[in-house]
Amino acid sequence: MAKNFRDLTVYKKSFNLAMLVFDLTKNFPAEEKYALSDQVRRSSRSVCRAIGEGYRKRRYPKHFISKISDADMENTETQISMDFAFACKYITKEENLEVRTRSEEIGKLLNHMMNNPTSYQRKTKHN
Questions:
Q1: Would 123 be classed as within a structural domain?
Q2: Cβ distance 103 to 17 under 8 Å?
Q3: Domain assignment of residue 124, yes or no
């Protein structure tokens, strides 16, 4: 069992994807600064935030599932925003495919967490 949320594979993959999104959006046009660039950066980072929050609440399965579901929603939002970036020719087909592939893998891991919340609970000691 992971000692904290930073040890989770899904967190590490989400953090790396958020950093890739950050790097890709550096070259977006200035007029996208407060629209697409800012939005996709926020959604990609929100995946990590929601995983951390959910992991802290893993003692409560319903709350845990809700936060991990939020992470999944933000992950999907990131994919959609990058589809727009590709359609606007801000990123290449290969870059969009890389984001999508990573994002879909993260989505599978998040779904596993939602379907198996007790696997992430702390093991308590009984006296």
A1: no
A2: yes
A3: no
